[in-house]
Amino acid sequence: MTYDLAIGDRAYSSWSLRGWLLFDAFGIPVRTHVARLYSAELPDLLRAFAPARTVPAVRLDDGTVIQESLAIAEELASRHPEAGLWPADQRRRAVARSLAAEMHAGFRHLRGECPMNLRVAYREWTVTPDLQADLDRLEEIWAWARRMAGQDGPWLCGTYSVADAFFAPVASRIATYGLPVSPEAWAYVEAHLAHPSFRRWRAMALVDGPDQPIYARDQPLRPWPGPEPLSARALESGTPENETCLYSGKPVTHLMEAEGRVFGFCNAFCRDKTVADPLAWPAFVTAWDRH
């Protein structure tokens, strides 16, 4: 089965993040097609995903289109039961489905007042009563899920599930805007920020086209609270350790340096997403560990 996934800007499109995590976090291969929000690119892309009018949207190799994240999650779970999108335990699965449905339909003030922006982290964000009510509800249902699931690990219903994928953009909002949550809730946010798939998405988000001015906020900045990446930089010239691109196997055209070591890639995006967070990429980690 071949899947094609339509998404918007990785830095800003929270629903696109959810859709992509349903593939990457569960090991399901997918071809990704990106279009810039608020431009002609998006409707142009979605013409190939009709009747979908928003991202994410998935097209199967027979032309069938799946729209809306919940539908994508359920269809993938049916087609790939071995991937474990939903918990195997009935009780945990029921809780996870309840959480995903509420996230899909709710938290209007959190979405409106704190749009996803993975390129910055603000300090001194004003929390309105409506926003605080959404945060209180998050605390309530996250704690409820752990009690119901008997879960004391990092995720809500046992192993990482659709419910966690749906809350990943919420975790990013709490991180971006420094929203006040309990230590237990913050531990859950930290688990998302450190999740390998989330780190890869954010690394791509940092280099995925120019900033969208509509998301800019006149607020003091602070460092991103997630794992500190290995320091790296783009390089104009040098001799890479690898003869072909670490990801595609194509000839090397772009270089990066980390701790005095040089690696090569087949295009600027491959290089730049690696510079953004080198240890988020398994192929780079394998090359790095060879030393």
From TrEMBL:
Q: Which Pfam families match?
A: GST_C_2, GST_N_2
Q: Which SUPFAM superfamilies match?
A: GST C-terminal domain-like, Thioredoxin-like
Q: Which GO terms describe its molecular function?
A: glutathione transferase activity; maleylacetoacetate isomerase activity
- Please name the InterPro entries in this protein's record: Glutathione-S-Trfase_C_sf (IPR036282), Glutathione_S-Trfase_N (IPR004045), Thioredoxin-like_sf (IPR036249)
* Signal peptide positions on this chain: none
GO BP term, pick one: L-phenylalanine catabolic process
Keyword annotations from UniProtKB, A to Z = Transferase
Domain named GST N-terminal: residues = 3-84
What this protein is called in its record is Glutathione S-transferase
Question: Lineage of the native species?
Answer: Bacteria, Pseudomonadati, Pseudomonadota, Alphaproteobacteria, Rhodobacterales
